[in-house]
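F.,

This is the one I mentioned.
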């Protein structure tokens, strides 16, 4: 698995669902797994994608956005 994104859980959960809709088996993990899961939607989490899907995931979520700047 390769790191794809780090951000608040509210964003990472949505990103994982969007990636799965495109057939990419992404997973979410907490940045600090020693903290209790108290439902805090601002808690930092990582999104990981399979290495074979990383380039496709990048194109889906980042490539077109670079031209908007």
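My design for it:
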């Amino acid at each position: 698995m390769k790191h794809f994104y780090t951000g608040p859980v509210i964003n990472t959960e949505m990103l994982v669902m969007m990636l799965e809709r495109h057939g990419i088996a992404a997973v979410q993990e907490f940045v600090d797994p020693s903290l209790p899961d108290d439902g805090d939607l601002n808690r930092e989490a990582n999104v990981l994608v399979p290495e074979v899907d990383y380039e496709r995931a990048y194109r889906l979520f980042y490539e077109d956005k670079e031209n908007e700047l």
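The helical segments are 9-21, 54-63.

Talk soon.
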